[in-house]
Amino acid sequence: MAEGSNFDYLFKVVLIGDSGVGKSNLLSRFTRNEFNLETKSTIGVEFATRSINVDGKTLKAQIWDTAGQERYRAITAAYYRGAVGALLVYDISKHATYVNVTRWLKELRDHADSNIVIMLVGNKSDLKHLRAVPTEEAKAFAAENGLSFIETSALDASNVEAAFQTILTDIYRIVSSKSLEQSEDPIKPTTGDTITVSHSVDTPANTGGKCC
Amino acid sequence: MAEARARPDVREIKDAYDHLFNSHQTATKIKDAALSGRLFQRADSGADVAGRSMAWKLFLVPNEPLQSVAEVEAVPPLKPVQAAREAYRALLMEKMRAPDGGYEEGFTVPGLGTLPPRTTNASGNLEKNNPLSLHDENPWREWFAAMDLRKTILQDVERTFPDIAYFRDAEVQAELTNVLFLYSVMHPDIGYRQGMHELLAPLYYAIDYDSFPPDVNADIDPTLKELCAHQWVAADAWLLFTAVMKGAGQWYEWQEPKTQPESSSPLPTHVQFNVGADDARVKPYVAPIVAACNRVQSVFLKAVDPELWKAMQGAGIEPQIYGIRWLRLLFTREFNMQDAMVLWDGLFATDPAFDLALWVCVAMLVRIRNKLIPADYSSQLTYLLRYPSNAAAAGGSPEDPPIHHATLLLRQALTLQMSPTPTTGVSIIHENKNLLGIPVEVPPPISPPVRRRPRAGEGRQSFSAESSTRNDAGGSKAAHNRQPSTPMGLPESLARGILERGESLGINKTVMNAVSEFKRNLPDLATALGRLPLTPQPHNAAYPLSPERPTGERPPWEPRSRFEMEREITQMRALQRKLGDTVGWVVDTLLLDESEVQDEAAKKTVEKRKREALECLSYVRDVLKGTVTEVEDERLIGEEEMRRRRDKERQEKEAAEALSRRHSTPHPPQPAAAIPIEARPQGAGARRSQDYFPPQGLSTSPPGRLPAPTPIPATVSAPRNPPLQSIASAPAMPIPSASAQPLQSPTLNAPWNYTKSSFSSASSPIATLPRVPPRTSTVLPRAMPLPPSLRTPPGASPNAAAPPAESGMREQKPKAAAYDPLGAIP
């Protein structure tokens, strides 16, 4: 445990989805194995880390959890910056949260990296009697949009581990395959990509202070 | 539910009232007391302090206008409170009424507790006014939207302070929902935002705590009885909440406020409404909360505690990540309720605009500086998002009476606000030492492999297999940190150039920094690293996490490194120059007067050139506007001009050669067959990476043979690119083999010199061979000093990365080929 700060990869993964779908509990279940029926609403950002092992590599996941009510415009840029994975959570017992998945996908398209790995997560699978979103429908939607899909329950802990494990492994595979690829292209140009004026809007002082 | 509403003895409330309003205290004095934690004798006894809500009413509710507040005895603000109650009743009745005149089940008239009268005001037009109507003006639409809003609010209200039983009461929840609902519909610009519920809840609680049960018979001052009437708890909470939101509301703003000043939103005065519409469009909207957070960290903290600021900035902490919650909830999640209420007392008393709150943030940061400074990104973020409560442990030396840590925080915030200097910062650090026992010395940064800080989620949940990997990784990581002698690939040698300029940073760090913009560069980076001859430590490899401090991770999304900045600046300068040149040419062209031209054909030519010039100009506009990311040189200069320039280059070349030939009569011209073929790619490479290098002097081949992208105007010259220059002057880095590292000249083939087109045209200079060597350079004698005009631009020096085996040759021949036709350079 002493060398805990060592890891092979560090991945930032964000949790998004409507308010009350159980994002914070997914996070606490995964990182602390805790679940609380009465959690405070998330204000701003929560953050936790956990490392898992894949192929003998230590993947450290920095998982960010944000308030679901609004697209937290004040912190969107900071929230999505550097995220390589996103768990898009809805509540299987509330159809409206599933309908809003499309809006969250748009949000991701607008603010996150285009290569971000997205997983659709139907949470609260323990509420079988209240199910409002058929598994097959969500699965089809996920396939259509190129997302992976899983149903979880932070309450009874089912599939929570698997969900994070899967997305982290997916990210890892992509990253490691990219680095193995001895592609013909040398280093690609980064011109234009890195100059993202809109990004610095939130943090003018940040970047400003950094340069000297 | 009775037990959930613990109420103080009536006498206690009375005492508090007398203390506030019947002891001839001025409002100023009361405020001072609140600020120094002396307002209530039992301030430390818990969240339940009788009389608190009265004090808040005094602070937050403006009493009779234009009183000289300072010297007048405090009087209970009864009149405005009563007015607000009436307003609350009227507004709520209005907003809660369904279009058919009915109310939701369970709704009672505020203040009376009776069922609302059912006024049937349904208009006769059932076409419109009918819950099922799809008509656009159907009033039910609005009603349903309001119901949705109430649902949203209730969802949060139900989750308000789950650990306080009081808030589980359905009645309380309904009242909180009403207040928030009313606020939201009255302030549509902001609406309801999560967090408001936790701002309202303590207000409501305090008012309810002080309120008299309706059936109280004790002998009480009627003013007091009215001020604390139980039936008006919700209305009073609405009043106080609205007052608090006058200051805190700005932090909930999430969209650009409408520029219409008549909006009823209580936006603080500093939010500018009168910004011209044009300005508003030009200036990107920065949410006030982000601006406030930035001020906290990048202005205030920087001024007060530069060391801490540097540590946080260095780790890449973005202030809004923690500040949004600190400010929006006014610290209720950072401290326990009782401490937070002490803070609120002071904040409400001093500054209802809550400017002081920003300084409270600063004082809070300074208080945990010992934890923050040595920590890495994750740990810093953890501390900031879970503010350590033990950092706030109250202390107190024997001679000083113990001071409440929240009160101390307020005092420090005030001090800082008045004099934001490093000296104040130091004095506060010392104060924290004296009063809270926080040592002045910052613990040293944790160096790897070190004891890991306990981080959430990594304790009991870690996988067993981890430890062995970690051990391996830990062992090799140290060795990996500095490997200057390892043969390096292109990115390293480039980074080396920068490194050599005196930055005492680890080479890997520089490299990693150089490519650390994970977000964008992931694939490129991975490719680049994958190509390295030596990547023995795959951990560390794909993600540039090597840190400023050796310890932990650095977030990949952190602000860009210096290397990247320089690269960007260089790019931009070069682009600017290019554009400037184009504009110069365009102006020249447009200044041509076609009316003076007699010849019809010539006129046509001029017209054509002008058209071209305009096209180029519009292209420049697009580039400047940012709509074009990939600048194509061909589009910057007209065709004819391009041809002309190439010709000119060639002519210059020939002239130079002719000159050299004249001066070298003693030696008969020698064939340049000696020029090794692999030397030539230097030229070729330069051409392909031509973006920022002048073709002049370098260009030796006829224009027709140029690879796809055409060279840029000759006025752009490498020597003006400082970073490149410095890289060029870096010592040569050995590169193992030409085939493994096809990009022989790091200077010329620096990643940022590539355009997409140059990529696709050829992946390696060798691939472009065989290229016919320039005829003229092969026949030159070799004893002629190089004409100054043709001297190699430093940026073009091909030496930097020549493989050792060929270095001798490479140092001379390429120059001979390109610039030293006379072979003057030995």
Write the layout of secondary structure elements.
The complex is a heterodimer of chains A (212) and B (826).
Chain A: E1 9-17, H1 23-32, E2 45-54, E3 57-66, H2 76-80, E4 83-91, H3 95-99, H4 101-111, E5 117-123, H5 135-144, E6 148-151, H6 160-180, H7 204-210
Parallel strand pairs in A: 1-3, 1-4, 4-5, 5-6
Antiparallel strand pairs in A: 2-3
Chain B: H1 10-21, H2 27-35, H3 52-60, H4 78-96, H5 139-157, H6 170-186, H7 196-210, H8 222-227, H9 233-248, H10 277-282, H11 288-304, H12 306-315, H13 319-328, H14 337-350, H15 355-367, H16 369-372, H17 377-385, H18 405-418, H19 422-436, H20 466-481, H21 490-499, H22 507-514, H23 518-530, H24 562-591, H25 600-625, H26 639-663, H27 680-688, H28 722-728, H29 756-761, H30 775-778, H31 807-818
Helix pairs in contact in B: 2-14, 3-14, 4-9, 5-6, 6-7, 6-9, 7-9, 11-12, 11-13, 11-15, 14-18, 15-18, 18-19, 21-22, 21-28, 24-25
What does this structure look like?
The complex is a heterodimer of chains A (212) and B (826). Chain A is an alpha/beta fold and 212 residues long. Chain A has helices at 23-32, 76-80, 95-99, 101-111, 135-144, 160-180, 204-210; strands at residues 9-17, 45-54, 57-66, 83-91, 117-123, 148-151. Chain A starts with 8 loop residues before the first strand and ends with a helix. Chain B has helices spanning 10-21, 27-35, 52-60, 78-96, 139-157, 170-186, 196-210, 222-227, 233-248, 277-282, 288-304, 306-315, 319-328, 337-350, 355-367, 369-372, 377-385, 405-418, 422-436, 466-481, 490-499, 507-514, 518-530, 562-591, 600-625, 639-663, 680-688, 722-728, 756-761, 775-778, 807-818. The termini of chain B are far apart. Among the domains of chain B are: 10-105 and 138-244, no CATH class; 288-436, Cyclin A, domain 1 (Orthogonal Bundle), CATH 1.10.472.80; 517-532 and 562-656, no CATH class. In chain B, α5 (139-157) packs across α6, α6 packs across α9 (233-248) and α11 crosses α13. Chain B has 826 residues and is mainly alpha-helical. Residues 260-281, 391-400, 448-553 and 668-818 of chain B have low confidence and may be disordered. At the A-B interface, β1, α1, β2, β3 and α6 of A face α5, α11, α13, α17 and α20 of B.
